[in-house]
Design a protein that fits this description.
By secondary structure, this protein is α+β, with helices and mostly antiparallel strands. The chain is about 30% helix and about 35% strand. It has 5 helices and 23 strands. A hairpin with a 2-residue loop joins strand 18 and strand 19. The two termini are about 25 Å apart.
């Protein structure tokens, strides 16, 4: 069979076969190459993952505060708007007329009040001189107070008329995106009628329903992380509702993300996206090894364990990653000394095989 293989390739195959036979014959107890670490049990957090949904902190529907027909609409669905931007206008003919009337009423009230105050000052001198009866003096005083009050009422009516006129120009309460436009040009609207819905992407939060047994273990925001794909984000604040849902017996949990938070590789986040809220529920003892100490060959996972200064390849079963380390579920025990760099140790195996 080997007679049909070229010489250089035959040499490579024979060398590989020799290494394989040598590896099978030896217990892989080879001279140590690289740093070692003595394993000790450490406490690692225990987490419970909750399915969550992203939602906007600021999402609202702008409603009409005055009556009139829609005059103009300046933004539509999916448009970006800045805080204070003019969203739409309502025909202001009636409001302008009310404003002019309020100004006229104020001017009239001020004129009457001015006349009443002058009369009051004159009658006060006459009353002191004894040429004016007390009844006339009381009547003059009452009229002066009445006209002064009428000025205040007219001034308040003018302020109200200005507000009604301002309501004909509907502005954005904050920067964001238009989610829905609920009226058309020419449509008659009344106070309280929804006009436009918008949301801000600057502040988002993850919302989940936690089972009662998990919610009871929540103490503070330090226990919570929001998982955005492979990215973990610590929330600015966490709110656990003070009551449980009567139907599902779960408790709503909201984790507010820091402003400007993005997804994996800087991808933007949008309300409605699925995510996870990871809640720490306790701690447990575990053995952790450096990620570089784990050698993976096909479906086998192994670690080089030091025994009397020599490295022995031992098969292990691994669990989750904890930072830059990997949990070993079986195959190792506290007190074992391992090689921290499996690839360096494997190179030493290859060199000895040669």
């Amino acid at each position: 069979m080997f007679s049909q293989i070229p010489g250089s390739r035959l040499h490579t195959l024979r060398k590989s076969l020799s290494l394989a036979l040598l590896s099978a014959a030896l217990p892989l107890s080879l001279a140590h190459a690289g740093e070692t670490e003595r394993l000790e049990a450490v406490q690692v957090p225990v987490y419970f993952d909750l399915e969550a949904t992203l939602e906007a902190v600021n999402e609202s529907t702008v409603s009409a505060q005055t009556s009139g027909a829609i005059k103009a609409v300046y933004f539509d669905v999916n448009d970006q708007v800045e805080a204070g931007a003019l969203l739409l206008e309502i025909v202001d003919t009636q409001q302008q007329a009310s404003l002019q009337q309020a100004r006229a009423n104020l001017a009239q009230a001020e004129a009457l009040n001015e006349d009443a105050q002058v009369l009051l000052a004159r009658n006060e001198r006459l009353y002191k001189q004894g040429t004016l009866s007390k009844g006339d003096m009381d009547s003059t005083t009452a009229r002066a107070k009445s006209t002064a009050a009428a000025v205040k009422a007219a001034d308040a009516a003018l302020l109200q008329a200005k507000e009604q006129l301002a309501y004909t120009k509907v502005r954005a309460p904050y920067s964001g995106i238009v989610k829905a436009r609920l009226v058309q040009i020419g449509e008659l609207v009344n106070p309280g009628q929804p006009l436009m819905t918008g949301l801000s992407l600057e502040k988002l939060r993850a919302v989940a329903d936690a089972p009662q047994r998990i919610a009871s273990q929540y103490r503070n925001a330090a226990q919570v992380q929001v998982q955005l794909d492979d990215k973990s984000v610590a929330p600015d604040s966490v709110v656990l509702f003070p009551y449980a849902d009567a139907t599902h017996h779960s408790v709503r949990l909201r984790a507010n993300l820091p402003a400007g938070t993005t997804g994996q590789d800087g991808a933007p986040l949008f309300p409605g996206q699925w995510t996870k809220i990871r809640l720490q529920t306790g701690e447990r003892s575990a053995l952790l090894v450096p990620a570089a100490a784990v050698l993976r060959r096909s479906e086998l996972t192994s670690v080089y364990v030091m025994d009397d200064g020599q490295a022995e390849l031992r098969q292990v079963r691994t669990g989750n990653a904890v930072g830059d380390r990997i949990e070993v579920l079986s195959g190792l025990k506290a007190g074992d000394t391992i090689a921290t760099d499996a690839l360096s140790q494997l190179a030493a195996v290859s060199q000895q095989g040669e």
